[in-house]
Amino acid sequence: MTKKIINEPFANYFRPLSFNDIVGQKHLFSNNNIFLKTINNQEIPNLIFYGPPGTGKTSVAEIIAKKSNKKIFKLNCTTAKTNDISKIIKSLDTDKNKKILLYLDEIQYFNKKQQQTILEFIENGKITLIASTTENPYFYIYNGLLSRSMVFEFKLLRKEDIKKRLDFIIKILEIDIDADAIDFLSVASNGDMRKAINFIEFIYKSDEKKIDLENCQKIIDKNYANFYKNGDIFYDLLSGLHKSIRGSDVNAALFYLAKLLDNGNLISACRRLLCVANEDIGLANPQVIALTKAAVDSALMLGMPEGRLPLSNITILLASSPKSNSALSIDMALKDVREGKGKKFPRAIQNWHFNGDDDAKKQNYKYPHNYENHYVQQQYMPDDLKDVVYYRRDINNNKIENKYADYLNKIKKTKNKS
Asked: Has residue 95 got a pLDDT over 70?
């Protein structure tokens, strides 16, 4: 075999060149998806992509940029300065009809003032912005940019997604590698395609004639190796943490939390704890939601190993708390919304306060604070849903929800009808 000479990082060399090369992100790139249709029609709005590293944000941005037929400028905000933005803006002065596409990678490193410098030109359409970030855009990106952009999440890649791309690369490089070794690399990359390709690059440059599972386990961090060897697939650990807390098993919850943290999954553990606090404890102990957010913020600020302490505390508290899944009541409401029900709102609750001479046009809204117990009977639900019940407390028999249910029952016995 003649070894292929590649004079750049493999992750860049094998970067997808078209949407057909993208793996994962089915919510954006499945057939007939409106995102894909809009981009293919070259109707490119301002876009913000966010998600973990190695999930395709930069690749997708570059593919879109090439489709735009606009002059492209790319800046990495880890090193770019305000002066770099100013130079791009000045280039617009030479041609009044000129329009450009500006790609800002890692936009979270630009401060508010730097982000504001392009606002005017996004507003008048002279600059189309594509930005990517590994952070939550609603915390790190200026509201003025957010309101003028479409925001899309890129999710961690599944093992199957990574394996598909690795198979393609391995075939091109003609690497002799066992199937279980590819499986191992697909899991050990932890949803990060760039990391998976880096593994392949390291292996390829070793000149080893035959790559097996043992070879791969020797070159990869022992935590990833253990993660794979013990059969503890990433999503199983998250599920174990969640279900142990839901099942009020403190010790099991701590075990799965420890496994996640020991394998470098601090952020994923934090996200799952926020989810379980709302989904499975919720109204049975509502203060725990704010406490979980505080614990997660502390852990992310501290980093490991100290971050284990606030997460340990909150995991014990969540598992020990009374449980309620009342938050899932929203799913029944969402089902009705998606089925097109409840389109016509009762006149009394519409945000239109003009009362004409015609009685039929009057709003006739009854202000609850003007009545005993701050309650008055009136219809809030649309006619086709007026008898629907989404929130059923009877299956969540806990002290706090019972208290508020008693209050609701009490005021609804008040005969305030007019």
From this structure: no
Whose CA is closest to 60, among 87, 82, 30, 29? 29
Q: Are 326 and 393 in contact (CB under 8 A)?
A: yes
Q: Does domain 159-229 have CATH number 3.30.1360.120?
A: no
The pLDDT tens digits of the residues spanning 392-414 come to 776 667 888 888 888 888 888 87
Dist. CA 307–CA 327, nearest whole Å: 28
pLDDT on residue 353: 58
pLDDT at residue 288 above 90?
A: yes
Return the CATH fold of 234-320: Zinc Finger, Delta Prime; domain 3 (1.20.272)
Per-residue pLDDT at 230: 47
For residue 317, what are its two tokens? 């508290």
Is the pLDDT at 361 greater than 80, yes or no? no
pTM of the model as a whole: 0.59
pLDDT score of 231 more than 50 = no
The pLDDT value recorded for residue 232 is: 47
Q: Which CATH class, in words, describes the domain spanning 25-153? A: alpha beta
**Residue spans per domain, the chain:** 25-153, 159-229, 234-320, 345-412
